[in-house]
Amino acid sequence: MTSTPRVPGVNAARAPGVSAATFRRVERAAGGLATRSVALMDERLPWFRVLPAEQRSWVTLVAQAGISGYVVWATTPGPEYRITGEVFGTAPRDLVRAVSLRRTVELVRIAIAVAEEQLPALAADQPESVALRDSLLRYSREVAFAAASVYAAAAETRGAWDARVEAGVVDGVVRGEDIGALSSRAAALDWDPSADTIVVAGAAPPGDRAEAVAAVAEWAAAAGRAAMAGVQGDRLVLVLSGSDPPGCGVEALFGDGPVVQGRPGGGLRGAVISAADALAGLDVAAGWPDAPRPVEADDLLAERVLGGDARAAERLRTVIYGPLAAAPTSLLPTLDAYLEAGGAFEPAARRLFVHPNTVRYRLRRITELTGRDPTEPRDLLILQTAVILGRLSSATSTA
User: What pLDDT is recorded for position 218?
Assistant: First the structure.
């Protein structure tokens, strides 16, 4: 029995024993097989039925290119034929975003199943049918690897784009950009612009910026909260979702030096305020060498005032001095006496002509009103600073 002529240049390692006539029949059958594959996709995959018509047409073209590409792959010697470009190059980038890798695998599986079912019947004899089936199996493996490459490249591109958008949003938060513009960019990252936020700032770790941001993403995933990060000069700024403090472990994301967390706030507007607090605290954190790590920006209010932070001064006047001055009991004179007595109850009571327990009671009331405990040295410093600022402001307004 004479052998059937082979296609010139056929690569025996890819399709040994398959004739040129069979390859031509495969090429002619590509359109019908693609149509059959799409019909099965529509029958078996509910999500495929609801795809827009344009995307379904692109899937049909990819399926047809994949079946036609088998002939080129089998008859092209060496590595010249690239499945990624020849098969998936017909699809627009939007299709990769619309159809996930898992769903692409489902589509490929159906298309290959149709090819394995239909194409061997086009062979001239049984040995050639077996050879055709074997080469189809190898080709399907190459298509699967090519699909993975397409999605890996798309993921890298998407990741790079996301990183640029994320850095832009963090920069906008730091600079206090328009909230509308910030919200639209944050929405592209699936960030809820209305969610509570808290900002943490510190020295950027040594090394590549991208590695620092990637470390934040890993930490946030483990902590179960959304995060955006950006390196601003020599500083790393984190925007975290939720109002809870970041907790242990966040300090490891930063380089040496203090780490300051701003007050939690609502939405991106709150993030702008929190970032301003955190960065202002970071500027003066050296004034408290023994500060915890991280330290709250409000615990550095005294240092921030000395550093010229007008927002910190206003907060001390509003949150601390205002409630004390408006209190019906003699809280301010009690605080004055306690300060003059060097933080001792008995001398303060003698100055006020009251029992020491009365001093203790009034100091507890101060704590309840302001959140600052006069018996704690750091809180006492903040209280004293607030009282000085409040009185200076009152004197200026009445002058």
Answer: 86
Position 121 in a domain: yes
Q: What is the pLDDT of residues 65-110, one digit of tens each?
A: 777 777 777 777 655 556 655 556 555 555 655 666 667 777 777 8
Q: Residue 237: beta bridge partners?
A: 201, 230
95 located within any domain: yes
Q: For the chain, give the mean pLDDT.
A: 82
User: Domain with 31 in it: what CATH number?
Assistant: 1.10.490
The amino acid at residue 61 is L
* Residue that the structure tokens 């692109």 belong to: 58
Same structural domain for residues 33 and 150?
yes
Q: Calculate the alpha carbon distances from 167 to 93, 170, 238 in Å.
A: 24, 5, 10
Instruction: Tokens 């993030």: give the residue.
Output: 271
pTM: 0.63
pLDDT for residue 275 is more than 60:
yes
Residue 115 has pLDDT above 90, yes or no: no
Asked if 197 and 258 sit in the same domain, the reply is yes
Tell me if 164 is assigned to some domain: no
Mean pLDDT of 133-161: 68
Residue among 89, 77, 230, 81 nearest 164 (CA): 230
Bridge partner list, 201: 237, 260
Distance in angstroms (rounded) separating the CA atoms of residues 140 and 70: 9
Q: How many domains does the chain have?
A: 3
Give the structural domain span for 126. 20-157
Whether residue 148 is found in the same domain as residue 235: no
Question: Could you count the other beta carbons within 10 Å of the beta carbon of residue 178?
Answer: 9
Indicate whether 93 belongs to any domain: yes
Shared domain for 151 and 26, answered yes or no, is yes
25/150 same-domain check: yes
Joined together, the tokens standing for residue 235 give 């500083």
61 or 202, which is more confident?
202
